[in-house]
Amino acid sequence: MNGDPSSPDLHCHEDPNFLYEDDEEMAEVNVVVNQNEIELEEAHLHSLIDQEIAFGFRRVEDLVIDDWVQEARLQAITWVQTRTRALGFHPRTAYLAITYFDRFISLQAIPEKKRAAFVRVISVACLLLAAKMEEMNRPPLSQYTIQFQGGSIKKMELLVLVVLKWEMNLITPFAFLDNFIAKLCQESPPGLKSGIEQRLLSIMTEIHLMHHRPSAIAAAATLMAVDQNLAQEALEAKITSIPELYFLEIEAVYSYYTIMQVP
Fold it and tell me: Which CATH architecture describes the domain 67-163?
């Protein structure tokens, strides 16, 4: 066949100069694509900050949380984390559920005689709502709990939605992680992100999530993955060396960082 001039030549006879020019063009395309990706990431970060500020996350120094609320939160956190693991949900779903819980409990008065039962139903409802926001595959209600009838859970879901004014797309520290890891971590070994996510879950018991900026909490957890023994000056130096992180409140980041240092 190769010796027959009438047979079509199916081999690709490439001009080296053409390949070189094509490589140059592809390199230029890659530069443009990379630049666009960077700009999109920065735009996304600024959008998150705008949402965070607009929502009004703020630290309340003299906040006093009633003993019953603290106990209720611990019960809710324990139950939500247990069910989240059992159902194979992402850690951010648990964090969002407790964010709903904190906001609801701070806005809605609960009769003293009904607190114990209410807390359990609220926990289920908040996890259900968080799963609807975060999870692609959601199990039937029966896998969440067998303690309550489905009707009571659905009524509580609706109450939570009404009290929270249907504002369910709340910013959590998880939204910042990819950006912060890229900026603050020189290396990204296997398990880095999952370790940071577990630190975020651990801080839930220490703070009321609605009174603290998610960006500062995310930065603290990310820096803990970099170095677990940073002094405040060293932590500040790492943050200020990255101009794009100008919006972070250094004292707040360091406060959460020290909380995460406790075993």
Answer: Orthogonal Bundle (1.10)
